[in-house]
Amino acid sequence: MIQCKTSKEISGMGHSMKRKEDVRFLHGKGHYIDDLKLPGMLYMDITRSPYAYAKIISIDITEAMKVPGVVAVVTGKDLEKYNLHWMPTLMSDTQMVLPTDKVMYQAQEVAAVIATSRYAARDGREAVKVEYEVMKPVMDPYKSMNADAPILRTDKPGKKDNHIWHWEAGDKAKTDKVFNDAEVVVKQDMYIPRIHVASIETCGCVADYDKVNNHLTMYMTTQAPHAIRTVIALVAGHVGLTEEKIRVVSADIGGGFGGKVPVYPGYVIAIAVSFLTGKPVKWIEDRSENLQADSFARDYHIHAEMAGTKNGKIQATRFKVLADHGYTDAAANPSKFPLGLFSIATGSYNYNASYMEADAVYTNKPPGGVAYRCSFRVTEAVHAIERITDRFAFEVGKDPAQLRMDNFIKKEEFPWKSPTGWEYDSGDYHAGLRKAMEAIGYDELRKEQVEKRKKGELMGIGISTFTEVVGAGPSKDFDILGIKMFDSAEIRVHPTGKALARFGTKSQGQGHETTYAQIIAEVLGIPAANIQIEEGDTDTAPYGLGTYASRSTPTAGAAAAVAARKLVDKARKIAAYLLEVSENDLDWEPGKFSVKGAPEKSKTIQEIVFAAYTNHPQGMQAGFEATHYYDPPNLTFPSGAYICVVDIDKETGGIHVRRFVAIDDCGHIINPMIVQGQVHGGLTQGIAPAMYEELIYDEDGNMLNGTLMDYLVPTAVESPKWETGHVVTPSPHHPIGAKGVGESPTVGSPPAIVNAIVDALSPYGIKHMDIPVTPFKVWKALKEKGVV
Amino acid sequence: MTTSITKTFEVDFPIEQTWANLSNPEKVVVCVPGASLTEKVDENNYKGEVELKFGPVKAKYAGLINFLERDAVAHRMQLKGTGTDSKGKGGAEMKMEGKLNQKGTGTEVNITMEVSITGMLAQFGSRMINDVTNQVFNQFVNNFKNQLKGKEVNNQLSAGSLVGGVVKGIFGK
């Protein structure tokens, strides 16, 4: 049961306040990028390469320029004149804006057509004649490492192979020794395929350059407006666009999930065209462009190993990863973490030896590696540890729930130093799994399974007990392009006691306008309904690194609480002055200071704020404002215990998710209704890769499912009934004890589903299934085993 | 992406007559629905066009048709067509191998068609490519037979029947 410290009227933390932003969304009054129309605006469309790997022999724009309405066609050669044909990626690799000599993946941008209408631009893009010399692409990351593989990045002087980076974590010697001496070792190869965030709104922008004032306003779909402003200044500073002349505005966003963190070539071309023409330029992707060319997620080939004792004690883990980054490393990770936070793969278990290594390679696929609703590769890590843990439990003949209970880090062992160096802040893994087992009726389900197996029916129960790592991050380790990953809040309380608060983050549906107001209401006692939240305009919001990787509550949420506390300190001084007592003689409850022993003598926060403008003490600054840039001392470590029950049709391979229980620990909960919504959405985005989604390429580099007809995004029809619950272990270092929840369900649910499916199939000797586990794959596996 | 189909059928015409049609570029190419010859480069090389339609996506490939083999003794021919779409949707390649065998008074025709497609059509049509190729092939066989009988060849890509055939192909499985 969630305890609320504030009244419903104030609606601080713990209240299921209805989302403030939903009023405009439900009235159709949201303002998305494609709603924006500026006078004289031009439209841009992009000619893309049909080939995955080809030399560009020539680009003929003659016919395109004849299309009525087309005003310009921009190619790589045009951008080269301004040195804008290449740009840096967030991982300090380089990416083409428009190519000058060769294309590296299917659907890569080749030319941009600018026209007075969207239709003319589309007609124009088809009229651009590009002559290619097609080359055989490298689609397999293993083959990419072969000595005879063609070197893809010929633009990099001296590059002799397709290798990008090598990365290691943990203690190799110590881990190898444990493995050598171990009674039981299990090994499993697994592939986490390339998937797409497939947000409902695609990416787009309106670049509006004002020649007279040398000022650029960039309206765009971005999760990190300030970082983008700095990137634009770094890329275009040499043509006179310096940072004070750039304003980035991120309006309402129809889903981001990490896919709206990177800078795509379309944005840069639009800026360049607006800069050259002095007119606003709109670019909006269509669905297929979004699926084919925008940053992917995952694409990790993982070899996982676990060592332990015959009676089921986990002793060590080893992981080897091959990361397929496409033609450039355009991942959105903090600089020091090329493999993201994958080293959380040691999991929720008490052992002290682990070693992991990874290599990244180039292929002829689109660039990327975004943290799709996953704080930097944690989905891959959790899949690896939770699958190998189940393999180990099966090998030693232990119930997977019992094996987990026996190996969990205990509540009193926090803070826990992991074998790869993380300091887990808090958790109660036993309580979480117990609660999930009770909710789902674990013991009865196991009995039912025994009966079903006697009848030859396939039923499986799968568990995932994961530890997340979010809230990036402490400045000593975390930066993006050198900018430390703090975040910010600025609160202004007006004389009448109503507030405006601005943040460096940017909601894409997370409900910040409500939850941030509730955090401030909790601390300050001003009703959340009277606190207006603004984000996404770099001219007004304080600098921040944006919203992704479940970092908003851990960073900006903390900043809001600390800034509000600064205001409570000021309020105390004013209250003491107004009530003519010493500060120490005052009692505070959210919204009111009263005199100790004389509670009838009190001042409300609204009275105090009014006095801050009308009757403030001499020597004190007038006004009631506070700003805070929060640099978290550690990351936060949410956790979860998920159990899934599946029934499988032997004849068709059809998988029915009968039940799914998710018990999450995200620390103190700000708004239970919003958390539940986040969990529901996240779980649905968890069954997606587990059972449906995968970007498929053939050996010629064709992406074979470039529409939502073929790329299967689960809908309400495919979603089972989600049963949710909570365990609360507050983060000890976070000002309000919150941990973040947006990503836990996406990260934690795929292995629960796969473990359930493999559990169902295990009587036939099936030990592993790669995701997405489709009915066809199940049917094939059963057929191979002679079951059907 | 590549798909390959082999079919064997019989015609009631002598092998030499059948060979005359199969080995004549102007006769055999027009049996491929949507295909036409636009220019003769030399004895073995022609310029031509092929139109293909996959559901909502239409592509017109302009390119070269090259006769790799025409063996009048073994009654075997091979041709290769390569082209690119005029609107940048990608490229296509078709290899066709034909072999004739005498069968009584008639002829057994053995044909293999291998179609590979790159670009937008491969993305949109990946689920349909086998069915579409099949339909194209069936239409080719009909045209080839009709041509031998001296009937008019319908070279139009019968889009309606193609879509119908594809739908049947998908749902009829």
Give structural notes.
The complex is a heterodimer of chains A (788) and B (173). Among the domains of chain A are: 22-30 and 487-630, Aldehyde Oxidoreductase, domain 4; 426-477 and 635-788, 2-Layer Sandwich (Aldehyde Oxidoreductase, domain 4). Chain A has 788 residues and is of the alpha+beta class. Chain A is globular and about 85 Å long. The model of chain A has no long low-confidence stretch (mean pLDDT 96). In chain A, α15 (552-579) packs across α16. Chain A contains 19 helices and 33 strands. Helix content of chain A is 28%, strand content 25%. In chain A, α7 (225-236) links the parallel β12 (215-220) and β13. In chain A, the strands form nine sheets. A seven-stranded mixed sheet of chain A has the order 3-7-1-14-11-12-13, sandwiched between helices. Chain B is of the alpha+beta class and 173 residues long. The radius of gyration of chain B is 16 Å and the shape is globular. In chain B, strands 1-7-6-5-4-3-2 form a seven-stranded antiparallel sheet. The longest helix of chain B has 20 residues, at 129-148. In chain B, a hairpin with a 4-residue loop joins β2 and β3. Chain B has one domain (2-171): Alpha-D-Glucose-1,6-Bisphosphate, Chain A, domain 4. Chain B is 31% helix and 46% strand. The model of chain B is unreliable at 159-167 and 169-173 (pLDDT under 50). Chain B has helices spanning 15-22, 25-31, 120-125, 129-148, 159-171; strands spanning 2-11, 35-40, 45-54, 57-71, 76-85, 90-103, 106-119. In chain B, α2 (25-31) crosses α4 (129-148) and α4 crosses α5. Chain B contains five helices and seven strands, in the order βααββββββααα. The interface between A and B is medium-sized, with 26 and 18 residues.
